[in-house]
Design a protein that fits this description.
With 546 residues, this protein is an alpha/beta fold. The chain is built from 14 helices and 16 strands. A 7-stranded mixed β-sheet has the order 4-3-2-1-14-15-16, with helices on one face. A 5-stranded mixed β-sheet has the order 5-6-9-11-10, with helices on one face. A two-stranded antiparallel sheet has the order 7-8. It starts with 16 loop residues before the first strand and ends in an 8-residue tail after the last strand.
Length: 546
């Protein structure tokens, strides 16, 4: 790869070191009353997550560790932290929220779960926290250490964190979870907690913890170091016309669900009875290919049993996936809300719009191929039945002709399947990362000192595929290599194009320690947590053949 050699610019050493995880998808978890796991729960690593935080807090406090590590941590959960779409329980009729009129439970909500209003989302958040007590206690324990910070990015499955009421409920829940943990530890009721009780821990979170929990509206940016966002905005099935203002045009109290969220709420929660890992296949078009190829009768039967919802889902996809945000904010508003100049934000928004248009074209081509494959499969069995019938009745010539047609059909379908498996149905985040990298390299930062807005890492989640790739560098005014990094997911992930179900206990995360020697030219520290050993190792990534 040809690489420019930019002039060296001194790095501003940030106050924190950084940890990034994404796509945890916490749903209802374990019911504290029954001890049973909710049927749609996929996240079972609460203790492992707590152990990872303990390891890194101890690492920062270690007397014998390099001074580069001796900083507070800033933890990013980069979208899809909470799986609001798969909370299907509803409040009891005697609950306070129903009695005071905040939530009206209808038959529709009993079947599909609560909606997206602020009050409904707060109820779902409390339900999730009740089923993942250790996880929320771990966040509180992490914030009990001075100067540690938590950043909760929006994803397409938890965009409801846009509500101020939900953000306040999150802060309150973390504080309450920590208090319960501390009292249980003092009283000896939690001997198996992975979180150690130490003399320097406060009995309650200090008042400044509120200011150390952040909810960026779209992306976040650390000068010279990283740009981070979830990544769903470049996927037409899962994008919002405006992720910072994702409201229905005619009802600002509710969220405008993108097509993927609509599918999860109304179809996938049923589909998982056929394919339990359906929502772990990326992208959606690959799942359609998988379902129609492996269980065509069950899949079609499920869709035909709900023709109204199926049709509505298709219309939802056609109507929303190509929408541009209704208007860009004013210059002053954008500067106050986003950590980059408005002109730069506009260019990134243009990348989103172009990526969704290209993805829609690729998706249409991909879906046409999938439908053609289903028709060819049906035709194949038709010719086989004709051949068997002719054999029974002694029509040998017609039997051979039918078998010949069946063989030709099979070869055509095999070639089509190979094409579908090797083709991209959407614009990949690697492509998006290159485009954003170019914008940042060419743009000047807010402070007006003439320095480039370039960063070393462009960090995404969303597609559940942990990886890193070096970017094609342009003149960026800084002396470092530039990388696309995807932090993957802590869930099993099925890759339809590679026919691979990834290891169910792969727990990937990215660690950034800017003051380490040689950091500017080192590989990204994309790690995998090994809970049995209570330590991380570098994630094993396989080089693709050239």
């Amino acid at each position: 790869m040809r690489r420019n050699t930019p002039a060296s610019t001194p790095r501003i050493s940030p106050k924190h070191n950084f940890l990034f995880v994404s796509d945890l998808h916490l749903a209802e978890g374990i019911d504290p009353q029954t001890g049973k796991v909710a049927p749609l729960e996929d996240f079972f690593f609460d203790n492992a997550f707590a152990n990872m935080l303990v390891y890194h807090v101890d690492l920062a406090a270690g007397a014998n560790i390099s001074s580069a590590f001796q900083k507070p941590w800033k933890l990013y959960i980069n979208g899809d932290f909470l799986e609001f779409l798969q909370v299907t329980s509803v409040p009891d009729e005697n609950s306070a929220d129903v009695q005071n009129g905040k939530i009206a439970v209808t038959d529709h909500l009993r079947q599909y779960g609560l909606g997206t209003s602020a009050s409904e989302t707060v109820w779902k958040l409390n339900r999730i926290a009740g089923g993942h007590q250790t996880f929320f206690q771990a966040l509180g324990w992490f914030l009990a250490h001075p100067e540690n910070e938590l950043v909760l990015m929006r994803g397409n499955h938890d965009v409801e964190t846009v509500w101020q009421e939900v953000q306040e409920a999150m802060r309150t829940t973390i504080k309450a979870s920590y208090y319960v943990w501390y009292r249980d530890m003092i009283d000896g009721r939690a001997p198996e907690s992975p979180l150690p009780l130490r003399d320097d821990l406060p009995a309650a979170l200090p008042d400044d913890y509120v200011d150390r929990i952040h909810f960026p509206e779209w992306f976040d940016y650390e000068e010279g170091l990283f740009y981070v966002e979830h990544g769903n905005q470049y996927d037409p099935v899962n994008s919002f016309s405006s992720i910072d203002r994702p409201f229905l045009e005619d009802d600002q109290s509710r969220i405008e669900l993108p097509s993927g969220s609509f599918f999860v709420r109304y179809l996938f929660n049923t589909i998982e009875q056929i394919h339990p890992f359906a929502d772990n296949i990326r992208p959606l078009s690959s799942y359609i290919h998988y379902a129609l190829s492996h269980n065509p009768s069950e899949t079609l039967g499920m869709l035909l049993r709900q023709p109204g919802l199926t049709l509505k889902a298709v219309l939802n996809l056609l109507g929303k996936s190509g929408k541009m945000r209704p208007e860009m904010p004013t210059e002053d508003d954008a500067v106050s809300r986003f950590p980059l100049p408005n002109g730069c934000v506009r260019l990134i928004e243009d990348i989103r719009y172009k990526a969704t248009r290209i993805s829609r074209r690729r998706n249409r081509r991909y879906i046409r191929g999938v439908i053609a494959g289903v028709l060819l499969r049906t035709l194949f069995w038709f010719f086989v039945v004709i051949a068997i019938t002719n054999f029974i009745f002694g029509n040998i010539l017609l039997m051979f002709l039918s078998l010949l047609f069946a063989a030709g059909d099979y070869l055509i379908r095999l070639k089509l399947m190979r094409f579908l498996n090797s083709s991209e149905s959407v614009v990949g985040l690697r492509e998006v990362s290159e485009a954003i990298n170019y914008v940042l390299n060419e743009h000047t930062h807010l402070n007006g000192d003439g320095h480039s807005a370039a960063v070393q890492f462009l960090i995404f989640g969303h597609d559940h595929n942990p990886r890193f790739e070096e970017l094609s560098q342009h003149q960026n005014g800084r002396n470092y290599r530039q990388w696309y990094v995807n932090t993957g997911s802590w869930l099993p992930s099925y890759d339809e194009s590679e026919r691979v179900i990834r290891n169910a206990v792969q727990l990937p995360f990215l660690r950034i320690v800017p003051d380490r020697i040689g950091f500017d030219n080192a590989l990204p520290e994309l790690l995998e947590w090994h809970d049995a050993e209570r330590r991380p190792y570098r994630l094993r990534l396989i080089e693709k053949p050239k």
